[in-house]
Amino acid sequence: MSWTRVIAITRKEVLQIIRDPRSLLIILVIPLVQLFIFGYAVNLDVKHIPLCIYDRDGTQVSQDLLKHFQATDYFNIVHLSDNYKDVVSPIDHGVCTVAIVIPPQFSEDLRTGRANVQAILDASDSNSASIGEAYAQAIIQSYSGEVQIEWQQSHGLSAGAPNVSFEPRTWFNEDLESLADLVPGVVALVMAVVGAFLTSLTIAREWERGTMEQLISTPVGKLEIQIGKLFPYFVIGIADTAICAATAVWWFGVPFRGSWLVLFGCSMLFLVVVLSLGYFISVTAKSQLGACQMALLATFLPTFLLSGFIFPIDQMPLVVQWVSAVLPARYYVAILRNVFLKGSEIRFLAGDIVALALIAVALVVLATRSFEKRLG
Amino acid sequence: MKFREAIERIRQMMKKEFIQTLRDPHTRWLLFGPALIQMFIFGYAATMEIKHVSIAVLDQDNTQESRELLSHFAASRYFHIVKYVDRRDRLREGIDRGDFLLAVEIDSGFAQRLRNGQGASVQVIVDSSNSNTALVALGYLNEVGASFAHDYQIDLLQRIAPQLVDFVPQVTLQTRPWFNEGLLSEWYFVPGVLGNLMLILIMNLTAFAVVREREIGTLEQVMVTPIRRWEFILGKTVPFFLIGCFDATMLALIGTLWFGVPLRGHVAVLVLGVMIFLLAALGLGLLLSTLAVTQQQSMITAFFFTMPMTSLSGFGTPVSSMPLFFQRLSYFNPLRHVILILRSIFLKGVGLDVLWPNLLVMTCFALLTLIVSILRFRKSLE
To answer: What is the pLDDT of residues B197-254, one digit of tens each?
Structure first.
């Protein structure tokens, strides 16, 4: 092991990166683009669901109920229909996701007891549909409660309705900003991509271009190649983490409650994992297309899907939960959520950190063993 | 005669491309393996539904009323009581550790306040480090509260004025989910996954195929042969178009046969929509290839474009929840249109009369990218 040779390899790799300033710029900009999309464009909290209304009752009472739908942020009334066909067509065209139909005898029914309101949901978007259903349900319930109180008062019964209210205190992400809990995922995603994508191409490129033969004919050892090649990407990965974290905290005001030491320590650990994975892929694939596809499959997707970044792990089928247990991204996202939002003591993180470290060791061994300094 | 020669040259080019792509088993696997795996993972893992929220309970009142409230929690299909604790700090610690998502704390005096007709409040702590889950859980919470209050009131009336019970006004909501009656998230995600995978696969394959020749230096060799530019491009793209058709068919079959997504619309419209989208993806791939010299560059640039395209396509979050500016921007995103087309044909069963504007936009996009990249291709060679 000679550090001069490691530095020489690193220098060559750095030169190659610097000579392609556009790619380097894109790599540093990608996390920003992704953060800005999640900060300004994509919101996981479904709001302004387009609503269509068909009021067949047309009385003061039904208008009263509809006012409740107008008053909320959750719905956006986009269409008023006056016949049933006019309800079907906007749903078919995807103009509205929910249609509220008030039956003709609604106010009549309400006077004598129970009344029904119908909600038609465009469940081809099952997520918006079920959220829309919940909002509509809440609006109807609160309306129903108001009607009951009025009724009691008019019948001279005790005015104080036995009202139960919940006083929720939301911990960790008080304003329920989806950006705040997406930031950890974005950081993990960017690191996985930078780490594994870029490194997966480094060795494959040498094979494909034929420069591997030249490299093999030099006295450089395989461990020296590995360290020398990966070091520049390690630095880029850390820079990306810093950019992400700084933008999230200072631009978007995402809280940061843990310690910077844990953030960077664990980020380095995660980088070791993805870099080793990328290196391993690159050694096995030997073509850049193959390496890139495999890296996509091995890092981007699991990080996006199975890490708990967007889809909560505890709601997945059990088998999928087991699969996610071997994914490094899952532990990294959990640690980052903690560092940004919870800021809880390090003993709560110990399990995740140990799991991440074990995976790191396993992958480093795998990566080092896979590379043979030999042709063919 | 001239035309025949051109056809022959394109045929040779296609043959070379097919041999190159299908030659080794490794690459062959890459053409459909990753797509298959992703389809299955997405189908099973991607669910936004929150079906069970784990809660812990601290009941300091311990009366019939408080137990009644808790039984409403237990009876709700959404909540799952995992722990009964007797000290407040246990709640705090459990939330910190992530043992449960929600902690309910009923103070002593709960029943007393209810009996006095005062509003009784219940303290709840929600772990909102996943804001979406927290929001949904809060919604469920209100449902439990409302149903408890209603039952309690009916009970009360039963005692003081039983003759009035039947006349208590109550409004209920009947929901009818159309197109996806069981609100299954697979049905929602599978068509979107199909669009996404097609974009990534075809765009990358095309971009890599051209850039690889440039990077290794074989592009010059091809260019000194009598083949013309448009013949070269046609020969390069047709194989990937066919591969795309094959993959799309495979994924659509898995969607319908394995995940049980219904195909309610016309197959012909589906085929038309997918083919136009494949052309758009090819065009985008070619355009990328004119922007890149090395495969690494083309991959990074592709990634730079696909991430926003996916995020702003309505794949996971509805376009209607985005700010107006981004809603307008998404009209230029072919992925948005194809996902809408796929969902509409599979689930809604609508046809050309509804979908023609989306098809038109995709056609324009495909033509534009193909023409621009052919024009740019000439330049980038010189």
So the answer is: 899 889 988 888 888 888 878 887 887 888 787 888 888 888 899 999 999 999 999 9
Residues B171 and A115 sit within 8 Å (Cβ to Cβ): yes
User: Which has more pLDDT, B273 or A44?
Assistant: B273
A345: nearest CA in chain B?
B96
pLDDT at A357: 92
Residue-level pLDDT at B369? 93
B contacts of A98 (beta carbons < 8 Å): none
B177-236 residues touching A, CB cutoff 8 A: 177-181, 183-185, 187-188, 200, 204-205, 208, 212, 215-216
Instruction: Kindly state whether A126 is in contact with chain B, defined as any CB-CB distance less than 8 angstroms.
Output: yes
Residues 6+ apart with CB under 8 A from B47: A311, A315, A316, B185, B189
B149 in Cβ contact with A163 (< 8 Å): yes
If residue B84 lies in a helix (H) or strand (E), which one and from where to where?
Answer: strand B79-84
- The minimum CA-CA distance between B48 and chain A, rounded to whole Å, is 6
User: Which stretches of chain A drop beneath a pLDDT of 50?
Assistant: none
> Which amino acid makes up residue B13?
M
* A245 closest CA partner among A352, A350, A341, A359: A341
For B115-149, the pLDDT digits (tens) are: 877 778 888 888 877 777 787 888 888 888 888 88
- Spatial distance between the Cα atoms of B141 and A141, rounded to a whole number of angstroms: 13
Alpha helices in chain A (DSSP H): 3-18, 21-36, 60-71, 85-92, 106-112, 126-154, 178-192, 199-209, 211-217, 222-246, 260-285, 288-295, 301-305, 318-325, 328-337, 346-370
**CA–CA separation, A37 and B72 (whole Å):** 40
The pTM assigned to this predicted structure is 0.82
Q: How confident is the model at residue B207, as a pLDDT?
A: 87
Burial of B343-371, coded b for 16+ CB within 10 Å and e otherwise, reads: bbbbbbebeeebbeebbebbbebbeebbe
What is the distance between the alpha carbons of residues B138 and A165, in angstroms, rounded to a whole number? 12
How many other CB atoms are there within 10 angstroms of residue B204's CB atom?
24
Nearest CA in chain B to A338: B129
What's the mean pLDDT in B304-316?
86
A72 part of contact set with chain B, CB < 8 Å: no
Secondary structure (3-state) at A43: coil
Q: State the ipTM, two decimals.
A: 0.80
Assign residue A156 a region (left: φ > 0; alpha: ψ between -120 and 50; beta: otherwise): left
To the nearest whole number, what is the mean pLDDT of chain B? 85
How far apart, in whole angstroms, are the C-alpha atoms of residue A150 and residue A153?
A: 5
Q: Is the pLDDT of residue B169 over 80?
A: no
Give the model's pLDDT for residue A354.
Answer: 92
Q: How far is CA A240 from CA A190, A236, A244, in A?
A: 7, 6, 6
The predicted pLDDT at position B269 comes to 94
pLDDT digits (tens, 9 = 90+) for A42-59: 777 777 889 999 999 889
DSSP assignment, residue B164?
Answer: G
What average pLDDT does the segment B14-37 reach? 80
Instruction: Please provide the DSSP assignment of B167-232 as one string.
Output: G--EEEEEEEEES-TT--HHHHHHHHHHHHHHHHHHHHHHHHHHHHHHHHTHHHHHHHSS--HHHH
Yes or no, beta carbons of A42 and B97 under 8 Å apart: no
DSSP string, A117-136: EEEEEETTSHHHHHHHHHHH
pLDDT tier at B1 (50, 70, 90 boundaries)?
low
Q: Which two tokens stand for residue A106?
A: 């609604």
Nearest-Å Rg of the Cα atoms of chain B is 29
Q: Which residues are CB-neighbours of A193 under 8 A, at least 6 positions away?
A: A30, A299, A300, B303
* Binary contact (A145, B146; C-beta < 8 A): yes
B375 in A contact zone (CB under 8 Å): no
Task: List, as ranges, residues 230-269 from B with C-beta within 8 Å of A.
Answer: none
